[in-house]
Specification:
It is a single chain. This protein is α/β, with parallel strands linked by helices. The chain has one domain: Rossmann fold, CATH 3.40.50. The protein is 30% helix and 28% strand. The protein is built from seven helices and nine strands. The strands form two sheets. The chain has a seven-stranded mixed sheet with strand order 5-4-3-6-7-8-9. The chain has a two-stranded antiparallel sheet with strand order 1-2. Helix 1 runs antiparallel to helix 2. It binds S-adenosyl-L-homocysteine. S-adenosyl-L-homocysteine (SAH) binds next to strand 2, helix 5 and strand 4.
């Protein structure tokens, strides 16, 4: 279990309130933000920072995404209990914990070996034993466990990886930031039929690059 206390809980409630003011409307997502500890992913010295709406370095040159971005992508994903979700870019594991709080069936893949080891060990030892962790190139998806109801990419891609949209069920959705190294457009791709896809755009964001064969 995570170390947690009233102070942390109070800071989280304030964070959820702030995200609501910024336009996050899904109450389940706001509840997840108010419930999932974020300070446990940062060094103890950074308690206040943990509950500010900011990205933060987590080592290996990577960042824990900004809470607003996590909430925004989670809201776009439209998940419920037992939704089968693939997350690409496990990173710190914070987004994975938010999704777990929403009771999805989670598969998460990370391309950086050190981060994969660190995060999978940390979350398993914290009791999040239902999350399925994988090490590898998520730009190719996770073919042996496909299809998925939802795929969330938490790194910026140069284009929509072909293999990902084909690992969606019909009616499935992919949420992915696509663009150059400066900023990316948040896209939601819905698989309408075997070969038809609908594309929606949701504004500009900034992510670390999606590496790998179908990434940068
Ligand atoms: N979801 C994370 C965000 C981490 S930042 C969180 O909540 O903290 C993006 C992560 O994507 C980094 O950890 C990076 O190593 C990883 N990544 C980049 N390219 C990848 C790829 N092809 N497959 C899997 N992970 C990748």
């Amino acid at each position: 279990m995570f170390q947690d206390g009233y102070r942390e809980q109070g800071l989280r409630k304030q964070l959820a309130k702030k995200l609501k003011e910024k336009g996050i409307s899904d109450t389940k997502v706001l509840d997840a933000i108010a419930s999932v500890p974020r300070h446990v992913f940062l060094d103890k010295a950074f308690l206040e920072q943990a509950y500010q709406d900011k990205a933060f370095p987590i080592g290996e040159g990577q960042t824990i995404s900004q809470p607003y971005t996590v909430a925004f992508q989670t809201q776009l994903l439209e998940v419920g209990k037992d939704t089968k979700v693939l997350e690409i870019g496990t990173g710190s594991g914070y987004q994975a914990c938010v999704l777990s709080h929403l009771k999805v069936k989670l598969y998460t893949i990370e391309y950086n070996k050190a981060l994969y080891n660190k995060t999978s060990n940390f979350l398993r030892s914290a009791g999040l034993t239902k999350i399925n962790f994988f090490f590898g190139d998520g730009s190719l998806g996770l073919p042996s466990f496909a299809p998925f109801d939802r795929i969330i990419v938490t790194a910026g891609a140069p284009s929509i990886p072909e293999k990902l949209i084909h690992q969606l069920v019909i009616g499935g959705k992919l949420v992915i930031p696509v663009g150059d190294d400066k900023n990316q457009m948040m896209l939601r791709i819905t698989r309408i039929s075997e070969n038809e896809f609908q594309r929606e755009e949701f504004g500009a964001f900034k992510f670390v690059p999606l590496l790998g064969k179908d990434g940068w």
